[in-house]
Amino acid sequence: METAEIQNEVLFEFCQMSIIAAWVYFNLMVLIPRLWNKGRYKQYVWAITLGEIVPISLLVLSFYYLPVHVLQLKINNQISKVLIMALFKTNFFIVITSLFHFVKEWMKLKDENLRYTEKAQEQLEAELSLLKGQVNPHFLFNTLNNLYSLSLHDSKKTPELILKLSQLLSYMLYECKDETVSLEKEITFIRNYIDLEAIRVEDIANVHFEIKGSNPGHKIPPLLFIPLIENAFKHGISSEVEHSDIHIKIHIDENKIEMNTENPFDNTQIDDGNNHKGLGLENVSKRLELLYPNKYRLDINQNGDYFKTHLVLEINQP
């Protein structure tokens, strides 16, 4: 093969690859983003099919501007074979580069979803920690006030109160670090809390605490019920009633936990600048929404002079 023929061969191949590269770039940068990624699949197929006329036409033009090469092919009657090969090369590179593009986008989307999931999990944990942290200081503040009040009167119940407080603090410091605790431990914590509060209010309120059902080993988030119970004591001591009645009932089933609280309610407390539901009840709603979406029901109602809460929590078997 003469030098001129080799040069024409190289030049022709260069023209082919340049045209194919331009067409591939146009497909990746224009057709896929504007048509395929927007769900216009039929338009994309038509654009690719009709668009191949342009690169093939350019290849034919470059073919005819290489006289030595064309002359040889005309003699050998191989022009149609060259066009078929050019069409094959164009489609081959379009398909391969498109596949690589889609795989790359899929991996990118997968990484973004993973990062979003991790970020959402971190945000959930942070919010739960914040909500839990808001419950604990509020509860401790009220308990310490109770202890201070009894100590001022040299009450014989002060040691018992300190023991109860010690047990409560031990639970909160060592058990509540986990995401979930056994229902049995939480019930023990609730009993201690109610006993502690009952000592404080025994002269002005009757506390009725009832638990029904068996404990099949449920796991629940720590301190989930306490804000409801705390709210009953906080607002259940009415200045308009000589002796209040506070009712707390917990019913444990195999697949759910149900709790009801009922306490007297002073209507004047609504306008004291604080919402009558309180921060604690708001936090309970947020935690339930985060931890048990579509698996809980929380009803908060005021019926006459009584305030009632009703919580139903669906529990999966361990």
Question: How does this structure look, described?
Answer:
With 318 residues, the protein is α+β, with helices and mostly antiparallel strands. It has 2 domains: 3-115, no CATH class; 155-314, Heat Shock Protein 90, CATH 3.30.565.10. 63% of the residues lie in helices and 15% in strands. It has helices at 3-34, 41-51, 53-64, 67-76, 79-152, 158-175, 183-201, 226-236, 278-291; strands spanning 181-182, 205-212, 219-220, 244-252, 256-264, 296-303, 306-314. It is rod-shaped and about 115 Å long. The termini are far apart. 19% of the residues are buried.
Question: Could you list some keywords that capture this structure?
Answer:
two-stranded antiparallel sheet, alpha+beta, 9 helices, 2 domains, five-stranded mixed beta sheet, 318 residues, Heat Shock Protein 90
Compact summary:
The chain has 318 residues and is of the alpha+beta class.
Give unreliable regions as ranges. 270-276
* Total of helices: 9
Please state the CA-atom Rg, rounded to the nearest Å: 38 Å
The CATH topology of the largest domain is what?
Heat Shock Protein 90
**Which CATH C-level class of the largest domain is it?**
Alpha Beta
Q: What's the helix-strand series?
A: HHHHHHEHEEHEEHEE
Overall helicity: 55-70%
Query: What percentage of amino acids are in beta strands?
Result: 5-15%
Biggest sheet statistics: 5 strands, mixed
The name of the CATH architecture of the largest domain is 2-Layer Sandwich
Structural class: alpha+beta
Mean pLDDT, as a whole number? 77
Cα separation of the termini: 81 Å
The CATH superfamily name of the largest domain is: Histidine kinase-like ATPase, C-terminal domain
Q: How many domain regions?
A: 2
